[in-house]
Structures are given as C-alpha cells and as structure tokens.
Automatic annotation (TrEMBL):
SUPFAM superfamilies: P-loop containing nucleoside triphosphate hydrolases. GO terms for biological process: recombinational repair. It comes from the Bacteria. One of its GO terms (molecular function) is 3'-5' DNA helicase activity. GO terms for cellular component: cytosol. Residues 210-638 form the UvrD-like helicase ATP-binding domain. Residues 3-37 form a coiled coil. InterPro entries: DExx_box_DNA_helicase_dom_sf, DNA_helicase_UvrD/REP, HelD_bacillota, P-loop_NTPase, UvrD-like_ATP-bd, UvrD-like_helicase_C. This is Helicase.
Amino acid sequence: MEANHWRQEKERLERVRKKLQANIAELEPEVAGLSDQATDIRKRFWEEVTINTSTYEDFEESFYSINQQSAILAERERGHKLLMQQWKNMNRLLPSPYFGRIDFKEDGLGPSEQVYIGVSSFLNEDGLSFLVYDWRTPIASLYYDCSPGPASYVTPSGAIEGTMELKRQYQIHNGQIRNMFDASETIGDELLQQVLGKGADSQMKSIVATIQKEQNAIIRNDTSRMLIVQGAAGSGKTSAALQRVAYLLYKHRQSIKADQIVLFSPNTMFASYISTVLPELGEENMQQTTFQEYLDYWLGDSLQPEDPFNQMEYVLTAQGEPGYKARLQGMTYKSSEAFLLDLQSYGVWLGQKGMRFNGIRFRNRNLITAEQMRTKFYAYERSLPLFNRVALMQEWLLNELASLERREREAPWVEEELSYLDSDQYAEAFGMLHKEKELFDLTEHFTSVREKLSNKRREDEGDFEFASKEEELLRRRVVKESFKPLRKAVKKFLFVDIKGIYEQLFKGEAAYRERTNRAELPDQWSDICKQTKERLDQQQLFYEDATPYLYLKELIEGVRTNTEIRHIFVDEGQDYSSFQYVYLKKLFPRARMTVLGDFGQAIFMQATSLDAPDSPLVRLFGKDETSLIRLLRSYRSTREIVEFTRSMLPGGEEIAPFDRRGRKPLLARLNGREKRDAQIAADIASLIAEGYDSIAVITKTAAESRDVHESLRIHGVEALQLITKETMDFNKGVMVIPVYLAKGVEFDAVLVCDVSLDAYGRDNERKLLYTACTRAMHRLHLYTTGDWSPFVRALSADLYEQAAN
Ligand SMILES: Nc1ncnc2c1ncn2[C@@H]1O[C@H](COP(=O)(O)OP(=O)(O)OP(=O)(O)O)[C@@H](O)[C@H]1O
C-alpha cells in the first residue's frame, strides 16, 4: 500500500485516539464518583423519607413523595448507567478504535463518506458525524456483505443504493496500526488467515472484524420466527449465534434486555467457554442453561431423570447386555413425532376414561378417595379439555378440604393436640391470635369501640366465653396447620397420578394400541414396556422418557409458560428431539427461536435433522415463518484436516475448507496399549515443544478417559486434566476428554486414542468419530492398536500420513 495512505491512516488514528483520550479524561471525574454518588442518593433517599401515617392525607402525601423521589432516582441512575457505558465503550475503543473502513458514495449525493467500523460508535464533538460506526449499524453491513463496486444496504426507511469505492481492513494493537489490507473480492481472507492461524483459547473469541457474508445473514436476520442454521463443523455457528445476540441487544435496545434471551448449551463447561464473548463486545451476557437443568427443576423431587451423558454411555458401552436392542429402539421411538402424536391421542382417550388420581389421606384416613375423584372428573362436561377439568377438580378439592377442615376441628385428636401445647406455644398462639384479630378482625374494632362508648370492659381472659373462644381459635389454628400440606399438594396437582398415567401406557401392545390408535409399533415393544416400568418403579426416568413425561403432565395439568423471554437460542440443535422442540415452543410462547446445529455431528439417539425437507423443526412454526441458512465453509481446521474429516461423512464433499495449510492428519498403529500410550505421551511432548498449548486426547467413553488419563500420567505427562461431565470450567492445557463432552469446543491439537474397528465400527459411531476429529484446529493424530475403523480405512491414502512403526 502506498506510503501516503499509511501516513494518512496513522494521522487519523492519532486524531481519533486523542479525541477518545480527551473524552475519557473529561468523563473520568464524573464516572469515578458515580458509584459513590449512587449509594449516596439511595442513602439520603431513605433518610429523608419517613412515612407519615397519622392521617390519610399525610399518608397519601408521603406516598406520592416517595414515588416522586424514586422516579427521580431511577432517572438519575439511568443517566449514570449511560455515562458509565459511554466511558467503558471509549476505553474499549482506545487500543483498537476500528478494524475496517469502507468509502461509500450514495447515489445522487455528494462525495463519498468514509465509514470506519469498530466495536462501538464514537461521535465527533459536533455530536453528528461518526468517527467510528458500531459494527451493528445498518451502514456497517456493507463491510460484511459487499465488495467494492455497486453496493446497497438496508435501513429501517428502505434500501440505500450507491458505490463502494474502497474496503480496507486494519490490525490495530495498542494504538498502532500493525497491518492494513485493501480487500477486493471477499472480506478479509488475509486477516482471517492470521486470526485462524492463532492458537486455541480457553475462551471463545468474538469474530466482529472478520464476520463472513453468510454469517452476517444469520446475525442480522430479523424477520423469521424460527431461524435454522445447519452448518458444518467449525463453520462458525456458535460464533454467529453470539454475535447475533449482541446485534439483537443493540438493535432492540429499547425493548430487549439481556435477561430476555436464553441460550441452551450442551453442557456447563461449554457455557463457561463462551461466556466472555458478549462482555468483550460491551454487552451483558444472555441467560444460559441446559435442557437437563430444566428437566431436573420440574422433575427433581418426584422422579430422578437420567442425564443425556449416562444415556450416551449406555449406548456406547452396553452392546452385550440383555435388552440393549429394545432400549435403543425405545430411545428412537420415544424421541419421534409418532410418539408425540400417540401421547396426544392418549390425552383424548384419557378424556373418556382411565384417568388416575392419588386419594387424599389424612392421619391414616381416606379424606377423599381416588375413586371419588374419578367419578367427579368424569362427571364434568366431556368436551372440556383435560387441563380444564383438572383445574375444576382442583377447585372442588380445595373447597372439599375447606369443609373437611371445618369438620375436623371437633375431632378428638385436636383436643389431644391442644393439651400437648406447652405454655410457650400456647402463649405464642395466643399472641398471634390477638395480633391477627387486632389487625384483621372487624369485630375486634367494633368491640373496642363499643367498649369505649358503653364504658364497659369486655370479657377478659378469665371469662368463660373468652376461654371457649380462645379454644375455638386454637383448634382452628391446629387443624389449619395440619391441612396446610394437603392444600399445598392440591395446588401442586399432586392429586393427579401422572406417574401411574404414564406407566399405564406401557402395559403391553394391545393396551397401547387401544389408548393411542397406533397401528405400527417397534418390534421390541414388550421389552420397551418392561424397561420403562422397571425404571419408574425405582422412581427414575430414562432420559428419553423425561420430556414425553413432562409433555403428558402438561397436557393434563396445563402448560407452563414464560412470556418474558423474547429469543431462545439452541446450540448443538441436532441433539434435541422433536419433542423437546415442541416443548420449548410451548414454554416460551413469545420467543423467536434460533437453532444452530450440524446433523453430521448428531451423536445422541434423539437427533433431529435441521434441514431435511420434512424436518419437524420446519413444521414447528411453518414454512412461512422459518428461514433456513446453511453454512458450508469450515473455518476451524486446516485445509488438510477438513479434507480428511469431510470424507468420513456421506455428502461431506460439499463442505468447503478455508484455505489455511497445515500437516496432514497422522495415523499411528501400535502394538498394544502400552506402546500406544507411550507414543501418545511422546507426541504430546513434541506438540508442546512446537508451541501448541491446547491439546486434547479424545476418548469415546468416560471409563476410557479415566484409564487413558491414568496411563498417560504414568508415562510422565504432566498437568494432565481429566474432563468429566461434572467439570464446570474450560481451561487451556493438556486434557483427556470423552468425545461427547468435547462438543462445541476446539483445541490446537487433537489425539483420538482408539480409532479401531471395535471402537468406531458401527454406523452410529461414524458421527462420533467425525465430531472428535473436527475439534482439531492445527494438528490431528489418530491411534489404534488393532484394525483401523472402517471409516478411516475407506479414506483415500493421500488424505493422511502414516507414522513409521
Ligand atoms: N468469521 C470468522 N472469523 C474468524 N474466526 C471465525 C469466523 N467464523 C468462525 N471462526 C472461528 O472458527 C472456529 C469455529 O467456530 P464455531 O465454534 O463458532 O463453529 P461451530 O460451527 O459452532 O462449530 P462446531 O459445530 O464444530 O462446534 C472458532 O475458532 C471461530 O473463532
């Protein structure tokens, strides 16, 4: 680039930085005092406000004064927050104010405008012209979407047409321009090369400077209710999702707050891995959770749901066990749409007969029997949906309990209970009664007024009548306390025997057909029934049963919803069942959904295809409300690694590697485990010596991880982490990790330790191996002590190197 361009750019950078420094210095004193001031205001606010309740007018006045003051306080706090935000943004800009520039000449207007783009906007003193544009502004999309030449961008008031005369990228560190490129075709191949060539980190990085056009379409999609992204491994799905959150928070800053966005992540370690991206962009983090957390929350007390990792371990390790085939068939069927329809039909059947209830017992007596409830339930209007009738039942039960409670006051046990009250309890109850009476009982007021008027004292504690009243009140209180758990249980719908209702669906083929109208059933149905029932008897649920169970529960009890949430993001979306999607949609009725995933990495049994023409995901909101974007370029791994991994997948040839070069994957076959582990230990040492500091030894199962971890430590590998499903944080270094926990994360080097026919021989293990290998950014090693897995054997020999034995 010409020397005078460099000079001009350096001078401009200096100018912008000086202005930033001046503005920061100007705000500094104000900002420094802000947090003290805020607490000061609050303190004074509470000191100055006293509630005057002597007369109604005084009370009213105090009330309005409090309201007024708190409004002033809120306004001031808003102002402070804004100031603080500006100050933080400027500080974030200072070391690297921008990463891109476009010169854009709008059709029909004067000279072209120089648009510098950075992580937030920065205005000139005039308050009108932008020295830096936020990357999320409409005009900045030109930088991501267009090449020099005719170009246009969309604003809320329509499309703006014009010509892009220049597109430039900068690498600015510590206030110095390190590098500058003028881009022509696509943005930033050079910059991207440099970014991708770096080492893996313990935290995911933001990609704002190098967002690619197809990723930008995901980030800025604002029209669909459902946005589905099917993207190859390493194509930037998670990155795009996080930038999209930042974009939505910026674009809808008046109406959406960070806590109205929820991201479902595959595990807690992944949540920690991505947690710094949004703060790096100056935004607050969205809420993060896992589907398992949700299941635990709603089922926790009554039934223990299995977690998906245990389910996965079973699939991978229990091949020889009896009932294995049935369990796998059960997993597939219970995640299917067919089963969802079956449950709906079952709901209709339950509307006519077969509901099961838990009778209400009290002190070893039946208060209301299950039979009474059933009779009552089926006496309600049959056309009412189940949950309406259950709500009516609930109301009826609460009324019944109230009258039973009244009757119960005369029961002998109450008398007995009263005599057990010690004097303290008595005094306490007595005090409470009086207090309650004074506050709430109108008759008490009336009595005291009458006392004053007639100048005649009411009966006191020594009076007979008072004593009997007191006993009556105490009885009432004792019975009320003992009925409390019953009322609570009714309010929580515990009178519906959901477990029994779910269980009676698995009473054999004929019963199932009758209840669901299903003609075709998996051939192992009777074993599936047996397994399901056995689990329920142990107060547990298979993972594949957990969501259907909750679905049925809500069909009967009514749907839980959270109407606050505006957007939900589902990462690794291929690993959720159609059931889980229906569920999420119901749960968050006002939310838009963004689902990101890769069917090539669908390693769980409940997998859902994201982009198949008949995908249940598309049907969820209907074609018109759904957009589907496919990402085919893979950025994480070198060209050599992508060429190797994509060949493992049918149809993988459409995955395009980004052109970053490296060594071909290395295949090593060794004679026995001892030699293999010695080789892995030696390879780890040499990779570290080459400068790679994030290295993962990937195993298939948790048990294998433990073995290999132990063995590698004996072989002298130091500071070796063992990652389990309980690991909360993702730390850089050398680790042993089961493949299903490595989802979504990446490493400089990956060593897959047992790529034998035994370990990865079945078709469902193909995707597992693909997922393991695609975690590698720069180097990939595969080891075996026996025959190679057929998925490796089928690869063309020029895709890899073989280690000399
Ligand atoms: N536009 C980009 N600029 C710079 N880096 C990028 C870009 N897109 C993706 N990357 C990098 O590629 C790697 C993979 O990205 P990411 O993890 O988002 O992909 P993914 O599609 O979610 O992967 P997977 O499905 O395999 O978990 C990350 O290191 C990310 O920083």
